[in-house]
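## retry 2 of 3
previous attempt timed out at serialization; input unchanged, resubmitting
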Amino acid sequence: MKITLNNQVLAGGVEVNENPTHFHIQGKRHIQIVQRIRAQSVQTLNRGNLQIQIIFEVGRRHRSQKEAECHALLHASQLAQTNGRLLIELEDKEQQCYQLEHACLENVEIHYRGNASYTVYTILGGILSAKI
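## retry succeeded, writing output
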């Protein structure tokens, strides 16, 4: 699986040995809760907004421990203004592709061990759909 956010590669896929792991998708509706004084129960109002959250981890091998350290220190800053369209390309025969509109990188968590770095990306966006 190859994942890009506005041409910024987050997971390079099988070809470069950067397959995402621990892939998790959560859809969440925005609900307003109304609590009236002396009411027997609360009232809920569905505001119709859907938020999709995608979380995945990418492991990378670097040429040295120093390179892994540099990646851990700088990678999050390099992605600071990254938002737009998230593309998820499945590396199968059909070359299926999905897109998440209005995607924004919410969180980047990086740790390294030896010459390997592990990055957890959290992305928020709107509607996730198949790209035709």
